[in-house]
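Hi R.,

Quick one: here's the V-type proton ATPase subunit H sequence you asked about.
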Amino acid sequence: MTKLSEFSTMPEDVDRGSAGATSLLAQRANEVLKEKINWPSYLQSQMMSQEDFEVMNKLESRGSARETLLLQQRPLVAKTFISLLSHVSKDSTIQYILVLLDELISEDPSRLDMFRENARKHKGENQWTAFLNLLTRPDPFTTHMIARILSKMCCWGTERMEGSDLTFYLTWLKDQLRTTPERDADKKSRDADKKSKTTTPARSSSYRPPPDGNEYVQCVCRCLQMLLRIDPYRDAFFKLDGVVTIVQVLGSGKHNFQIQYQLTFCLWVLTFNHEIAEKMNKYGVIPTLGDILSESVKEKVTRITLAVFRNLIEKPQDSIISRDNCIQMVQCKVLKQLEILAQHKFDDEDITADIEFLNDRLQTSIQDLSSFEEYCSEVKSGRMEWSPVHKSEKFWRENCHRLNEKNYELLKILIQLMETSTDPLVLSVACHDIGQYSRHYAAGKKVLEQLDGKQCVMAHLSHSDPNVRYEALLAVQKLMVHNWEYLGKQIEKESEKP
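And here's the predicted structure, written out as tokens:
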């Protein structure tokens, strides 16, 4: 059984460990903290109060006055941070304030509750608002430092984020994952923006997903790794199509092994929610992780991927779902990869245990596997190929009607594959199966017309790949022949009437 050791001993801080030490955000934070802010000028220009000025001086003194302040006047410290973050517009100053705050939190996580205490002193205030508003600023370092601080507040504080605040924060994190590595032109544009003063934009509808790359994506992943250990956050993230986003990012192949590991870790943590684990197979998790497993050269990526597979078998309370997951893993060549991995010697005992467990369960699942179950698994995986069932006339005579089950589930998936897939092999097999369904199921043509399947097939008559064109042409012919056969039978019935 996969142990929770990795889950429970994961670094509490979003940037601890070797990966955190080398992250761009951590490197930049170290540089920012070395800079000195001219607080007297802010006081003279009335951009900060005398009280805030004194608080910042004590925090920077790193002496007994600092410790006394943080022990006895935490709400006042929180009030100062909120005031400065809400009124200062200069990026470099905002960055310094955030890095200083993050340092204070890392030294003593209990200090986070000073923001809750401050909010209680001022009725109607919300401890999250000032931080969430800063997520709309154009400077990426600022927004990702805010995300880092918020993740600590959500996980270490005594109050959980919820409602529209949580939705906004998780949506922001999800959108950052969708971005690709930043181009040089974008970086120059961003650096130019940093030199100009900006005001804090309002939250709500003003937020837009980032148009270009995210150089701090590792920070985003670490925030999610922290948040998704807590079940209410898992549930909220899943409802926002978080799994879909993670699968899309992993499937893009644009990120290194570190990001692969972090995002797969997020999927693993999500599977500890039984309801989420039962729905994972609907979002292409198994095919995507199957590809990662076959290409992985890093032991930690292999370990966490195997752990996800194990949970997808153990965590669902519905045994049918667990079996379907096993079958889909077989379909995605996981069993073959396990045979290769079994020949390696791993230092981590969990890897060996997971390999043995998965191999045993997958072998058992295929012993009594019917041809139709094999076909279902292949279609649902989206990895269509010329397996024997497609060419078997007996299979289609006996099973064509089963494509109508669960409100035409398999038929709809075939049509969706024809609409979305760019793989000529998948398109060829899907067109072939649509033709076979039309040929062997009496009302097939009518059903396909209702589901826009006929139009999808005809659209591929001009496909660039000759094999796709060929299978589409055969399918269209079967649709037309079926139409004439049906018409002929109707005429015969009419002529037989007295």
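The chain is about 70% helix and 0% strand.

Cheers,
M.
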